[in-house]
Each structure stands twice: as C-alpha cells, then as structure tokens.
C-alpha cells in the first residue's frame, strides 16, 4: 500500500567511531523515535564502509547510514515530528550526527 515515508541520511560526528555511532543510534536514538505517535515502520541501514565498492577509490561514503520511517499520511507524519518524542529525537541528533539530510518520499510497496 501507499505510505508517506521519510528518509534521513546521517553522517557521524568526526570524533565518533563507526561502532560508537551505530551503538548510539540503535540503543539511545532509536527508542526515542519508536515512541513517536503514528509511526508505522522504522528501519535503520548502515553502509558497509569496508566494502565501499560504490564509491571511487580513496573516497569515503557520503553518509554513514540512513533511516526510513513510514506514516499512513502527511498529517500523521507532521503530528509525529511535532510530538514530544519527535522534538526529543530532533534534539538528540546533535549527540551523534554532524549532519542530517531528510527527504520525504511516496513509496508504493509491491512485494
């Protein structure tokens, strides 16, 4: 079915190891997001920085990971981001990410 989704692309803080970045996101940040009202699905994808075959030799991946969140519609997404949990999650980003870029997508799941 059609869901309103948001993708957030994160770059870890310069002084944070890959392991610490992943642990913080999974153990501290994710539980805050999971309490957002109206959130239908939430997944985190970490790039395999060792493989790196998609990027030219000598360059690093443009992001360390991304999250996908799904809501039933635009209104539910806006309500979630404006909620106490949504605002707390936004504030928490500075604790482990140096940059965050979010895009909203309309995704139709076929399989």
What features would you describe in this structure?
It is a single chain. The chain is an alpha+beta fold and 111 residues long. It has helices at residues 18-34, 74-82, 84-92; strands spanning 2-12, 41-46, 65-71, 97-108. The model has no long low-confidence stretch (mean pLDDT 89). It has a 4-stranded antiparallel sheet with strand order 2-3-1-4. Helix 1 runs antiparallel to helix 3. Helices cover 32% and strands 32% of the residues. It is built from 3 helices and 4 strands; from the N terminus they run E-H-E-E-H-H-E.
Please give a handful of descriptors for the protein shown:
111 residues; alpha+beta; 32% helix; 32% strand
Summarize the structure.
Helix 1 runs antiparallel to helix 3.
Unreliable stretches covering 5 or more consecutive residues: none
Strand order in space, largest sheet: 2-3-1-4
Mean pLDDT: 89
Question: Measured on Cα atoms, how large is the radius of gyration?
Answer: 15 Å
Query: How much strand?
Result: 25-35%
> How far is the first residue's CA from the last residue's CA?
10 Å
Largest sheet: 4 strands, antiparallel
Number of strands: 4
Helical/strand content category? alpha+beta
**SS field, number of helical segments:** 3
SSE blueprint and pairings:
Elements: E1 2-12, H1 18-34, E2 41-46, E3 65-71, H2 74-82, H3 84-92, E4 97-108
Antiparallel strand pairs: 1-3, 1-4, 2-3
Helix pairs in contact: 1-3
